[in-house]
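hey so i finally got around to running both of the ones u sent me last week. sorry it took forever, my laptop kept dying halfway thru and i had to restart like 3 times lol. anyway pasting them below in the order u listed, first the sequence line then the structure token line for each. didnt double check formatting much so if smth looks off just lmk and ill redo it

first one:
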Amino acid sequence: MLWPLTSFPDVSAFTPVDYDDRDLVPEPPNAALYRLPPPEVSSKAWWNALRKAVTDHLVGSRTVSIQANRELKLYSRIGESAEAFAARCADVAADRADAAVAALRSKYESRLRARRTRADSAAGAAARAAATHEAQHGAGAQVTTLLDGLFGGRRSRTSIVTEARRAAASAARVEAARDKAAVAEQEILDVEEDLRSEVTALDAEWAGKAAAITTMQIPLERSDVSVADLRLLWIPYDA
């Protein structure tokens, strides 16, 4: 409501009021007096100019408070609660985190496939070396040969040393094969740990982005403002 009405109204002087059409009565009180409005109110152009001035004033002076997540490029909708917007950000961040983790699949699948192939090959080689050693020398072949040869007196020193060297070399091959297999298994564990670390980092990164919510003020657009009704009212007062 703007009062008093002048030939060139100052739209910033409008006062918000809460009223219902039922608050207005058709019959004035007794002895009521009325002031004539400015003559300009009879012109349609005056009303159009007033409507435009009100729109310009609201566009220039009013803002809307919304929530924003610039990390995710998301903005709350008018009427959307803070909790609902936070949940929407969390859902979007979770989807993008899933997509980022899925992108790691091809990177790690090839690495794991190659290391599992090497591990299987190394484990097989270790098993074959152990079986060959067992078949040729027995579990305690080197010790038994040395003791029997030295104290049994049945073999020459040369044959005893030769056999001992062969058994030792065979045992060394078994150990080397087992070490290689252990290294291959550790490589698999290392790749899995790398993957786990990357997934954990991605999860933390996107959780942080989901939580990066701020409040921002945005101005009204002209299309947001509609001056639905302008009325000229006489409010009677007692003399």
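and the second one:
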Amino acid sequence: MIIKVTADKEKAESLMKMADITLERLRETDIMKYPSNTLIDYYDAIHKLMEALAVKEGVKIKGEGAHQELIDYIAKKHGLAEQARQFLQQMRDYRNRISYEGFMINKNYIKLNQDKINEIIGLLCKKLKIS
């Protein structure tokens, strides 16, 4: 459920900082050795950046399906390509399966999609600096 809230620049900054810390840890880790954890961390960082963008705009998304709705909101509001939106939804699904079912990600998934992930992170960071 999307609700209007007071824009909160401080919370947005905190979320961006947490995303940056997660990404820094990823840079210092052998990501191919731990592909499932890597996917969770990448998704977590991307989610924090999307949430920072939303809260900076005075939008809060909560309740059942909030992550899915946040991805759709950011994609629509900020012109993310449909392919990027679908990829983020796939990452969300994999992250849930890892967390709740013990699903394992193959290191090839990370290898094949790392550029796409970094591109999305860069785009979100750019949007946060502009807004």
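quick thing i noticed on the 2nd:
The chain has one domain: 2-130.
anyway thats it, ttyl
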